[in-house]
Amino acid sequence: MRGLVDDAETLRFTRVPQPPPDGFAEIWIARYVDGRKDGSCEGFAIVDADGTFLGLALAPAMALEPEWTAELGYAVAEAARGRGVASEALRRLTDWAFAQGILRAELIISPDNEGSKRVAERAGYTYEGTLRSKHFKQGRREDQEVWSRLPTDAV
Fold first, then answer.
1. Which of 75, 140, 148, 149 has a Cα-to-Cα distance from 99 of 20 to 30 A?
2. 139 has which bridge partners?
3. Does residue 55 fall inside a structural domain?
4. Which residues fall within 8 angstroms of residue 62, CB to CB, at 6 or more apart?
5. Does residue 131 lie in a domain region?
6. How many domains does the chain have?
7. Containing domain of residue 50, as a range?
8. Does pLDDT of 1 surpass 60?
9. Cα–Cα distance measured from residue 126 to residue 147, given in angstroms and rounded to the nearest whole number
10. Are 97 and 128 in contact (CB under 8 A)?
11. For the chain, first and last CA: distance in Å?
């Protein structure tokens, strides 16, 4: 987990603050533990067959009744990138969300994150558009793309 928080690509393309404050990994985990209790978010570790940590599959924002929507996301350790880990994790996370009754799964992706856009396409997500000047980090504003998938989409 600590490796993700220190990884330049994770810091660039996620909402993890730069630099991460002391204890951020523990605070991040605690947020998902609390969210699991109230249904507002969920997080899963991505591990290989030996239990080696490969990354995270996350539902950082879930709106149940009446919306039934969820923002999903993923962060993969540098050593695990390029092996299909993120695509498989997103497929499984999306299946999990739909099994919870979610009717719309969304991804928010930086327009500069070509790898994440390829993961979204492989997992059956559709590009919907760009939200201009949506994300603020490190003193600058950035556009964000919205990708979605519905349970009825053919994959």
1. 75
2. none
3. yes
4. 35, 39, 40, 41, 42, 69, 70, 71, 97, 100, 102
5. yes
6. 1
7. 2-149
8. no
9. 5
10. no
11. 31
Q: Is the pLDDT of residue 2 over 80?
A: no
Q: Is the pTM value of this prediction over 0.85?
A: yes
- Supply the CATH number for residue 78's domain: 3.40.630.30
Residue that wins the pLDDT comparison between 11 and 29 = 29
Least confident range from 16-20, 60-64, 80-84: namely 16-20
Supply the DSSP symbol for 19.
S
In a domain, 154, yes or no: no
What CA–CA distances, in Å, run from 64 to 41, 70, 102?
10, 8, 7
Neighbours of 49 (CB within 10 A): 5
In a domain, 104, yes or no: yes
Task: Tell me the pLDDT tens digit for each residue of 101-123.
Answer: 999 999 999 999 999 999 999 99
Please identify which residue in the block is written with the tokens 């603050």: 17
